[in-house]
Amino acid sequence: MSQFVVNIIHRPEMVPEYAEKVTGHGKAEDLGRKALLTESLDIFKTQQQLAHENGLKTTIQMTYASLFNDEAVELAKEDHARYGDEIALSLLGLPCKEFREKYQTKDFCIWMFSMEDKKAIVTDVFEKFHERFGFYPESTGSYYMDADLINFIKEKYPSVKCAVATCWEEGPKAYHTCNNSWYTFMDGGPWAPWIPSKVNTHAPAANEEDSGIVAIPHLSRDLIACYDGNGSNFGTHPQNVLRGMIYDTETWEYPYLYNLIDQYRYQEKFNNGYAYNMMFVGPGWMNKMGRWESPYELLKKSYADGCAYYGKLKKEGKLLDLTMSEFADFYRAKKHYTEPECALWRDILYGSDKQLFWYCDSNMRACVNMDQGGAIVDLRPYAAKLYWPVGIGTPHVTDASYPFLIQEKYRAGYFTHYAGEGTIRSAKLCHNGEEVDLALCRTKAHFSQEGSDRVLTLDPVEVVFSDLTVKLQTVITFREGDSSIRIDRNILEMSDPEAEVDINEYMVGCYGTTEYAEDMTSLTLSAVKGEGAVSLPYEYKCREVSIPGADRVSCTLPPIKTKVSLLGEGPEKTGYFKEGYAFSPMFTLGYTGKLCEKEVFTTWLKLERAN
Questions:
Q1: What is the spatial distance between Cα 272 and Cα 489, in angstroms, rounded to a whole number?
Q2: pLDDT of 581 over the 90 cut
Q3: 357, 477 Cβ separation under 8 angstroms
Q4: Residue 110 in this model has a pLDDT that exceeds 90
Q5: For residues 85 and 209, what is the distance between their CA atoms, to the nearest angstrom?
Q6: Which of 52, 324, 494, 500 has its CA 20 to 30 A from that of 135?
Q7: Which alpha helices (H) appear in 531-590, and where do they start and end?
Q8: Rounded Cα–Cα distance for residues 497 and 565 (Å)
Q9: Are the C-beta atoms of residues 494 and 472 closer than 8 Å to each other?
């Protein structure tokens, strides 16, 4: 039976994010201003009412500021008793008069504080919650929660079993669209619920690595539009859709919002009958002055319509509304550690035929782009379980992203500039001096699950040379619990059945979390054949090594404790690696071979932790 689950989360921010500046009308900042507190609480009441009118349960994430407000506390108690809403605790909404006086800071992102301050703030907030409600919460959350923070919370407050723990692809793209002012970098995590490892929040756990909580994302994003652009415009938070101007300004209708929810429902086809969605809303989005060039009336209408759509699905038996703690229990009963999350996502915004496939498990997060012939355009090596402490006093004060090996948005992807290369995993066909990259051959993918394998079978493409036409099909296989991606290139037919073509399977990679190149001199390139091995320290010298019959070619990246390898199987295979240069600070791993009609060339991309 298919199950589409939704979490609807409200937080009574007494000093809602942005709202003091928006509603202050030029007055000096006053976080305790009565008009601000009253309006915020009124909006929270409206949000709760709209959900309840449509038969939906919510999770009420109490903010620190709201714990000092008697009316907010009583409202939460009443709605818990009447509607079954969960009373939880948010680590957003810290700024208020009491917090500023106690901690003497304007910081508000819990993961950016020093570990000492994180512990003090968590203890302060959780104990205040217990003082007001007589119990400790089962759920908490923020935009992001680093692993050390989650581990501390779980150890000190074991009742917590669910948390909002990352904001999908909230990195340089979001930073740039906020006038280079939004210092919250957290690319590289899952887009759907997961169990985070104790070592790194982004990396799903495998067995003993279980942090003890189920994590959910901060908003459900459009997995194409958000990846290509600013995610804050493309999510199932209705006001995201307004911020992205994705609505009819005359009729105030927004079919994209419903299409986005429906596309999440569709993902159950790729995840054993289960799909997830969430809506996480603070009062600041619905203040009476309006937001995103939209009047209050439209802000309220969009939220009312969003709740009504979820309510309609529930009445039709197509939706299960759960609180966060209920969802944690549901998720642990439904999923097992090695089970991946998959998403075959199509463009529902721009009218293109673009299609991406996302895959996430405890070993990797990968994105396959069918507009680029099935090239891998994003790859995060979770197999390394990279410890990445975040906050003041760590090497990463603001950058919580999980590093990439391949990332087309920050490191070019298929490259058309006059020099250099971009990160990508693709293949080239060569014949009589002509060369065609499959990244230029658009296709479509079809998903199947074969035992524990998730298989993408791509529509065949035609590669046309001046004297030969080749029909080729690509099959990409992700094996559950395994840290490798298998790619088969099958020559279905050729205009000259006796002809032969050369194939060049390659991966161009690097590492980092932003657009800016890292120092590559600690990397080592190597090739192995039998008992023999050739290694090369990276020195930006454009060197290349080829080994006929090589068993494996690899690159070891100590800064991210990762070893990535290519293994090849096919006629006349030769393994090779290339060193980059300063203008193109990449590395290349590859295999070449020869193919005739009806032959297959197989390669595996494998990820390992490098100690």
A1: 28
A2: yes
A3: no
A4: yes
A5: 31
A6: 52
A7: none
A8: 33
A9: no
